[in-house]
Amino acid sequence: MRVFRTVVSFLLLSASAFAADLKVRVVDPHSNPVADAQVSLFPFTESTPKAVLTTSGEGLVSVTGLSDERYRMQVLAPGFAPKNLDVALPQPSIFTVNLAVAGASEIVVVTATRTPVPEQESGASVSTLESGELQLMQPVATSDAVRFLPGAIVNTVGQRGGQSSLFVRGGDSRYNKVIIDGVPVNDPGGIFDFGTVPLAGADRLEFLRGAQSTLYGSDAMTSVVQVFTQTGSTESPELRFGADGGNFYTAHGYASFAGARDRFDYNFFGDQFNTEGSGINDDYSNSFQGANFGARLTDRASLRIRARHSNSRSGVQGEWKFNGQPLLPPDADARARQNNLLASAELTVATSAHWQHRATAFEYNHRTLNEDTVPDRGCDVTVFDFTDCFFRDLAHINRAGLNYQGDYIPRDWAQTTLGYEFEDENGFFNTAFTSTDINNNPIIAGQFTHGLRLNHALFVQQRITQGRFSAVGGV
After folding, report:
1. What is the CA radius of gyration of the chain?
2. Do 370 and 446 have their domain in common?
3. Beta strand pairing status for 414-436 and 442-466?
4. pTM score, two decimals?
């Protein structure tokens, strides 16, 4: 019996001695950690993956139980060029992968296939705005950034804070799917106002042109616009702040506090913009706060929680001019307000070398108020003069949902993506306006509407890549 125990112990020790661990650190050209990069490891002569993992806020992944042999490694990080290299075990304590800035055709994107993929293999037209470009542009709202992308036409009603709509390749403004941190934010019917959504704290923006209904539903008939928040990556906490200003009493301030430590990363940020505008009741203000927190639960599981809140207020002049001559003076008290809150929790688990699972729960609250309480430009409903009558229009839209996505990678040239989406949409609309009774006397009338919609969706996508040939199909 004692001899048997000795033999078993010897075999176990021998197996552990020949098993190797590999810790990989992914960094950008400035040696800063790259979070959420997909690291795939293949035996050198095989196409079946040994491991497919995602980097933490510190840019780290760990693979255990490897044999001392030669491997192929592929690293895909959104915004960078794909990286392919050979790795021979054993390696030093940490193997560092340096990513390079991508050219226009080789940049890695996510929106095209819901997984990291080089743009040239996605079979789609994708444009991106990276963190550095957004910092140089300093857009007050998303409309200020999207309007410079190919195929995009942005139309804004009035001045700062006015309704901004996106038209892509001649399509209607209701045909664009907008996603922020994994949360769909379109109004029911597809409308979205790009003029009051700040991009503070955004790491990148991806603009996918063309019909994308397979993965994103009927809202995505002409494009998908997706915004991703920055992930904290510096070991020492990093504090950034700044301010700028201009004419019309314009003032802008912003700040962020971010970092990563051990298994956790964090990013807290805020932005404040104010302007008086160029005339009566032309002021605009927007207060914005956000957070992005991540935790590496195990080497194969991670949790990420994101939140964004904005509160905007715009004056609505409603001024009419013809040939430079004022036909209708500006309204002194009409207002448009928005209050938006979104939050999401995302759990990612790699159950094997072939399967990755992602479950996301989200909540989105959207409130708008449009009102004009003082008839300062005239109102006499008895003679059908509704020029500047009292009205108040309040809308409260709530969307809660749960998404699942599974990625199956049997070979390095094939990937299957499948998923399920559920949304519970509630809408409350309350309108009050000036009208007349049966005797033609002025009264305040009103209308209340409630809508409920439960959405279920399933999708499957298959991607195959062989050399210069790539094919993507799905239902």
Report:
1. 27
2. yes
3. antiparallel
4. 0.90
